[in-house]
Description:
Elements lengths: L16 E3 L7 E4 L9 E3 L7 E4 L7 E3 L19 E3 L19 E4 L8 E4 L5
Parallel strand pairs: 1-3, 2-4, 3-5, 5-6, 6-7
Antiparallel strand pairs: 7-8
Amino acid sequence: QLTALPPEIGGLASLQDLHLNGNQLTSLSFGGGRLASLLWLDVSDNHLRVFSMDEGNVLTRLDISGNQLQDYSFLTHLASLGTLDMSDNPFLPHQKPPGLERLQFLTARNCFHDDLSSLELERSP
């Protein structure tokens, strides 16, 4: 099981899907154009406490469920995101992530004090 990303992954400029689910990752950062073509990222069921992505990414699908994330400011950098699963993370009560109106589908079970459950959202023009 991975505890960190191998540096070689950053050199895969054409990579579109990356599945890192079920590992022991605690921190994950994509910046400086690393994995700029990535469309789908699955980092579910890790131990992530820190996750970040720079602006300019083309990510359309993200599964961060089953981690330890308490901050979701990274969502402001995910302008192309359409599908997000953020279930089972201990986000702080009464805080809603920025950018939810952009999503086509959101799953957010056991994240918020008022439990958003599963919501279908229409993309804004």
